[in-house]
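Hmm, what's this shape?
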Amino acid sequence: MSNAAPSVTDYRLAPPVMARFVGAYLVVFAVVVLAFTVVAAGLGINPDVIVVLLLLGLVGLAALAWWLRARLAVVRLTASGYRVRLVRGAGVREARWSDVEDAVAASPRDIDCVVLRLKQGGTTTIPVQLLAADKDDFARDVRAHLQAAGR
């Protein structure tokens, strides 16, 4: 295995985190269907409209699941820098490797994280349990990108 970092590495959401997003969608969808059903029954709207709403909701569910699984990159590491999305409290969400002082492991509130400390004083905190990757492999990949950038 070479120490050279690939030009672009995307890290996706871990399956348990994806399940939370899908679960939230299903709860909201169920409330919308219930409310629409009550309104439709009260106003005498054709029940076929409810079926159309259900079908649209199922298509939306499939689209959300596909996007979460195949398209959404929570962390993107490139040859020039990194970008973090959908991580509450991440701090600096995007920076060049030349701006990174170092990368350290930390466990704030007993959550394993990789913390990228920036030269200007900011930090980026990435909880590794959110990623569909082994925490040690992720840390090695971050280090490889830093080393490839001359850090």
